[in-house]
Design a protein that fits this description.
The protein is of the alpha/beta class. 37% of the residues lie in helices and 18% in strands. It has helices spanning 25-34, 50-59, 70-77, 89-97, 120-132, 155-166, 178-188, 202-211, 227-231, 247-255, and strands at residues 4-7, 39-42, 67-68, 82-86, 101-102, 109-112, 136-138, 144-147, 150-153, 171-172, 195-199, 215-219, 242-244. It is globular and about 60 Å long. 45% of the residues are buried.
């Protein structure tokens, strides 16, 4: 059994549609707290200030002890304040509150976050911006973004398109980047080999975790809905260690000493 956990939020702890706690999710966090099992809640939240999102989760019944999101990494790696940024209005407001100046004519970095209603015009604008700077930043590397029961291209998918279009690489500040996982690891002072990552995003979260030697548990309560959607697309060595329907099943396995 591993010594600690990294736990995703959207589709893992809270439902993608009504944002309510998923079956067994609050109980899982409480169990870890009561048993003093190290963990970090790892989220690609980019719509709310970190402190506001933590408070929102606590209001839903999650007594979270350790937390990290992409803003923790962004403020460390992006020192220049002039940016071209794409995402929801809330995301842009958070960037402004952090001291960044959004200007599509005079900027040093391109930052892309998630939004479900991007248009071809938006993608065109991203490409034009990417051609003007070498500092391309993805808030995270999600493969699919799920909202209200629909699935959209995640930031990882969008930035892969931009990279192909302009032949420039980009930096990821959220999952599954090494900098993000390393900062989370330091919060609980464990080696990667002693950590199990729980997420609903195999491509955007768990493959990167596997490369660092972490064990992976895929849940089918979010953007991934069936085993076949993932299992049939992966090589044997890249399959998750375990697949569960939701957090309640992982909790039962943990109590039995299986996970």
């Amino acid at each position: 059994m591993n010594k600690g956990f990294f736990i995703d939020v959207q589709g893992t702890l809270i439902d993608d549609i009504d944002k309510s706690p998923i079956k067994g999710a609050c109980e899982f966090i409480s169990y870890l707290n009561n048993k003093n099992i190290p963990y970090v809640v790892i989220t690609n939240n980019s719509k709310n200030k970190s402190e506001d999102f933590i408070e929102e989760l606590k209001q839903k019944g999650f007594d979270i002890r350790n937390y990290i999101d992409p803003f923790y990494i962004l403020k460390e790696v992006l020192k220049n304040k002039k940016i071209a940024a794409f995402g929801t209005e809330k995301f842009l407001e958070v960037l402004i509150s952090m001291g960044y100046k959004i200007d599509f004519d005079d900027f040093e970095s391109l930052i892309v976050s998630i939004r479900e209603d991007y248009t071809n015009e938006d993608y065109s604008k991203m490409i034009e911006c990417a051609l003007k700077t070498d500092n391309l930043i993805a808030m995270h590397g999600t493969s699919i973004y799920s909202k209200n029961g629909k699935r959209y291209p995640g930031v990882g998918a969008i930035m892969s398109m931009v990279k192909f279009a302009v032949n420039k690489d980009y930096q990821i500040v959220g999952k599954p980047s090494l900098s993000f996982y390393e900062k989370a690891r330091k919060l609980i002072n464990l080696d990667f080999k002693d950590i199990t990552v729980i997420s609903d995003d195999m491509i955007g979260d768990l493959l990167g975790a596997q490369e660092l030697g972490m064990k992976t548990n895929l849940v089918l309560s979010g953007k991934t809905r069936t085993k076949e959607e993932i299992v049939n697309t992966l090589e044997k060595d890249n399959l998750p260690n375990e697949i569960f329907n939701d957090m309640s099943e992982i909790l039962e396995s943990l109590k039995k000493g299986i996970v």
